[in-house]
From TrEMBL:
Residues 5-158 form the Hydantoinase/oxoprolinase N-terminal domain. This is Hydantoinase/oxoprolinase family protein. InterPro entries: ATPase_NBD, Hydant_A_N, Hydantoinase_A, Oxoprolinase-like. It comes from the Bacteria.
Length: 654
């Protein structure tokens, strides 16, 4: 039997599946806690569980990862310099060192200014020793990339540094966004290289010689050689894999997909068995890129969402902050039960923090610069294991209200433990995998702190979690209908109350009916979506293996390379200009321009698919001729040619 491994490293868990390549059936599945300090550890643990069930040769390992997304959000990566050609940056850039030089083109691909080659050489020499890579972005390089290509030659001559060109990552308009994309891609180069190397070491250690592939932001696969050149294409890799996995498990033409993880809930729509594609480009860490991704709406609600209570209004909020569940922490570290029991007897009133708060060591002092003496003491106290807020405060002789943990948490030096929806499922016995006593104790402590009834508090937390998911689904459907209409505050009215069923007694009722079925994937969905379904009057489908759909999506993925080019009249000079990713060329006749453009693009996408690891990729194309009516005559505006090449990974064919 020939098999493939699919691995998904989420924010909370690393999931894995072993599948039969021929039938696409799941032979084994596994979960391990994601080890953020070193992703390869969680990956190794997950694979070790899977290969006990191995019944044949593993031909491929496919990985979806949050690493690139998290690195961008956290501002991590190597030091990058940028050289911008022909235009000042319209907005702030994610880089400390950049230069602007003369050059660039106009919308028709003609030179707007001659390239200042001397200035580029001087900039490259100035950047040497200060940065690890250089990003080059020229104004309207998607209409003619010649200045970026020449700049790359000059930079390499003067510095020897790796160079990323913006036109090679996106063919969409938007100078700011393409520049950001090139810079972020350059910053991610060593991060993805390190991940690839560490996972390859794990595979070698486990005697798995299969090639590795990584899920891209559109849900397709690519070989590691391609990904190491274009790591930016792995942002939103995890949510994209979940869409492919859910679609593969059920084979529905159209459906809403909801993936509830530990940190977030991701919602997507499939039409004609394909996910919607975000043509504008992904927004990550506050930066708008030109990386085309699956259209996914992400919300900060998950199994590990931090449950907090407003002391004045006694209003419960769930998320978006993520913490480690009490039930899980106490399962691994049982001494936390005794520490929390002691909190019940403590007379100090908390005005800021919560009695359920505990902390554990993650990366330690190496992850934080200029730690204060108190912060260093906290790290020392946690070296022997996690402790409650109250115990740590007593050891430091400070008031628990002023316990300085936030900088350490933000830096990843320590982790935060508290009450979560996962704990609530243990309280209600809908989940029974970790320490229920810790979950019960967490509810008791919060109820005591805010003078609430324990059963009432549990019901309120459940209702708030469900209502946040209902609101997320409605908001996503509005977005998928191309309407930019935030509904969060709009449900705070009488109709919203009735839709969410916030009051039991009603003289009249309101309801929403959703036409497409809801596919629920992710470990906690069985418990939560049955409650969501009641409020939205929709069909709910939770497939077998829903808890590992992301990993399954990685394992069954295809290689797809897409590109689009345009042909336009060549201004006042005459002829027709073909805007290819690597050149701008002009033909006297439109038919000859189309013939050249189509043949070039077929070769381009096919070769890219082969480079990404595809076997015998099949090419599809579409030609759209656009005309405008002028004085009752048809005036040629442009021709758009879209091409795609699709194939199964070569690794699973041979």
């Amino acid at each position: 039997m020939v098999t493939a491994l699919g691995i998904d490293t989420g924010g909370t868990f690393t999931d894995g599946v072993l599948i039969d390549i021929r039938t696409r059936t799941i032979l084994a599945k596994a979960k391990a806690r994601t080890t953020k300090e070193d992703l390869s550890k969680g990956i190794e643990e997950c694979i070790r569980q899977l290969i006990h069930s191995r019944t044949g040769e593993i031909k491929m390992v496919a990985l979806s990862t949050t690493l690139a997304t998290n690195a961008v959000v956290e501002g991590r990566g190597c030091e990058v310099g940028a050289i911008l050609i022909g235009k000042q940056p319209p907005e702030k850039l994610p880089v400390h060192h950049y230069f602007v030089v003369d050059g660039g083109h106009d919308i028709n691909g003609f030179v707007a200014q001659d390239l200042d080659e001397e200035a580029i050489g001087e900039a490259a020499q100035s950047l040497r020793g200060k940065v690890d890579a250089v990003a080059v972005s020229s104004f309207l390089s998607i209409r003619n990339p010649e200045h970026e290509l020449r700049a790359r030659e000059i930079i390499k001559e003067h510095s020897g540094l790796p160079v990323v060109c913006a036109h090679e990552l996106s063919n969409s308009l938007g100078f700011q966004e393409r520049t950001v994309t090139a810079i972020l891609n350059a910053k991610l180069l060593p991060i993805i290289a390190e991940l690839v190397e560490s996972v390859k070491n794990v595979l070698t250690k486990l005697d798995i010689l299969a090639p590795m592939m990584i899920v891209k932001s559109d849900g397709s696969l690519a070989g590691i050689d391609v990904i190491q050149e274009r790591p930016i294409e792995t942002i939103l890799s995890g949510p994209s894999a979940s869409i492919v996995g859910a679609s593969g498990l059920l084979n529905l033409d159209q459906a809403l997909i909801l993936d509830m993880g530990g940190t977030t809930t991701d919602i997507a729509l499939i039409k004609n068995k394909e996910p919607l594609i975000n043509q504008e480009g992904a927004m990550v860490g506050g930066w708008r890129t030109r990386v085309k991704t699956t259209e996914v709406c992400t919300y900060g609600i998950g199994g590990d969402s931090y449950i907090q209570i407003n002391p004045k209004q006694k209003k419960v909020t769930v998320g978006p902050k993520r913490v480690l569940p009490l039930c899980y922490a106490a399962h691994i570290h049982p001494h936390l039960i005794n520490e929390l029991e002691q909190v019940k007897n403590d007379t100090v009133a908390l005005a800021i923090h919560q009695k359920t708060d505990c902390f554990l060591l993650l990366k330690g002092e190496k992850s934080i610069k200029n730690a204060s003496p108190v912060e260093k003491e906290i790290l020392d106290l946690l070296t022997g294991g996690p402790h409650s807020l109250f115990l740590l405060a007593r050891q430091l002789h400070i008031d628990p209200n002023f316990f300085p943990f936030q900088n350490l948490v933000d830096a990843g030096a320590i982790g935060h433990i508290s009450l979560t929806p996962t704990d609530i499922l243990h309280v209600t016995r809908e989940l029974d995998i970790w320490n229920r006593e810790a979950a019960l104790l967490g509810v008791e402590l919060l109820a005591e702190q805010y003078d609430m009834d324990e059963k009432e508090l549990t019901r309120t937390i459940i209702d708030e979690t469900v209502n946040r998911m209902v609101t997320a689904i409605i908001q996503s459907l509005i977005i998928f209908e191309d309407k930019k209409y935030p509904i969060g505050h709009c449900l705070d009215n009488i109709l919203g109350e009735k839709i969410l069923k916030l009051k039991e007694k009603n003289l009249f009722r309101c309801s929403i009916e959703i036409t497409d079925p809801l596919i629920g994937i992710g470990a906690p969905v069985h418990a939560w979506l049955t409650k969501v379904k009641e409020k939205l009057h929709m069909e709910l489908i939770i497939p077998s293996h829903a808890e590992v759909a992301n990993a399954y999506g990685a394992a069954i993925g295809k290689i797809i390379e897409r590109s689009e080019i345009i042909i336009r009249p060549n201004g006042s000079i005459g002829g027709f200009g073909v805007y290819l990713p690597w050149e701008y060329t002009v033909f006297d006749e439109l038919d000859r321009a189309k013939e050249y453009a189509l043949a070039s693009m077929i070769d381009w996408v096919k070769n890219n698919a082969l480079k990404a690891g595809a076997h015998d990729p099949k090419v599809e194309y579409k030609i759209d001729d656009i005309y405008a009516k002028v004085l009752n005559a048809d005036l040629f505006v442009e021709t758009r040619i879209t091409c795609s090449a699709t194939g199964a990974p070569e690794a699973i064919i041979n």
